[in-house]
């Protein structure tokens, strides 16, 4: 896998920023733009083919299956069963598992990317579906999410695309949360995930993969740069990018970004700001 040419990469970043700031961002478009930044072989035709593949899968679902449980069963039968979409342990070791176009070809990936497939197929078919960002394991919800005025049992059905779309009971969802955090399931964890938060989580996974593969610092850099284009993102990503630039030998740019970050944090933590400024001076000293 090779990155796109600089001009193409700049165009993709601009399109990603524009889509991320749309009133209703298109999740599949954002994910495919991430894939195009990662994989220079993914051109416009390839992105169109991925969208067509999602359309085809949606067209093969039963027409309006019924209630939330029926939708979950229909997706599991088609995607998890006939199409063979599901995950496995080795998927966590591969960058491909975080790229939508590769997941569509390989029929496997991380829980969050398989959830994107479920979400996009169900959405195209008219289902009431949304992502549910459980700590450590992303799943999909069908029906009305919990909230004010939604108290009846059975109105929300959870499915785990990583396990072929298996329907989860609340107890099983609680076990997933407990395994990841040691804490019980909080009802707020079952709320629909914003598409931009979902995309940030995908980029976080890519950064985690790159951290485990130091020879791919370029991947960490573009994942950080895309994260910073999202309307809402953790402020410390700017600091992380600055440190990565220094490690890659771009001492001056990294030092400038450290100083800019120090200005942001100084109002709430003067000691942290001073530490960052010392790092900036040390980075500039490497130029001598």
TrEMBL record:
Pfam families: TPR_9, Transglut_core2
Domain Protein SirB1 N-terminal: 50-204
Protein family membership: Belongs to the UPF0162 family.
PANTHER family on file: F-BOX ONLY PROTEIN 21, SI:DKEY-261L7.2
Protein name: Tetratricopeptide repeat protein
Organism: Streptomyces physcomitrii
């Amino acid at each position: 896998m090779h990155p796109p040419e600089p001009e193409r990469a700049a165009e993709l970043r601009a399109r990603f920023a524009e889509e991320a700031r749309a009133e209703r961002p298109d999740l599949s478009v954002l994910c495919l733009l991430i894939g195009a930044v990662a994989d220079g072989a993914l051109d416009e035709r390839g992105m169109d083919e991925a969208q067509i593949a999602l359309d085809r899968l949606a067209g093969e679902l039963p027409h309006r299956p019924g209630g939330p449980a029926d939708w979950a069963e229909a997706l599991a039968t088609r995607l998890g069963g006939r199409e063979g979409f599901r995950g496995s342990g080795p998927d966590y070791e591969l960058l491909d598992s975080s790229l939508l176009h590769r997941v569509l070809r390989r029929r496997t990936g991380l829980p969050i990317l398989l959830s994107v497939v479920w979400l996009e197929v169900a959405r195209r078919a008219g289902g009431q579906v949304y992502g549910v960002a459980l700590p450590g394991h992303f799943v999909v919800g069908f029906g009305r999410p919990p909230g004010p005025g939604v108290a009846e049992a059975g109105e929300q059905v959870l499915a785990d695309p990583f396990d072929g779309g298996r329907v989860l009971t609340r107890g099983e969802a609680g076990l997933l949360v407990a395994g990841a955090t040691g804490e019980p399931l909080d009802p707020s964890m079952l709320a629909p995930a914003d598409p931009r938060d979902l995309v940030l989580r995908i980029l976080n996974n890519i950064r985690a993969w790159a951290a485990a593969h130091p020879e791919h610092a370029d991947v960490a850099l573009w994942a950080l740069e895309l994260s910073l284009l999202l309307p809402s993102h953790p402020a410390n990503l700017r600091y992380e990018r600055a440190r990565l630039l220094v490690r890659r030998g771009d001492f001056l740019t990294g030092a400038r970004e450290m100083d800019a970050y120090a200005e942001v944090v100084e109002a709430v933590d003067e000691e942290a700001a001073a530490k960052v400024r010392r790092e900036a001076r040390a980075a500039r000293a490497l130029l001598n």
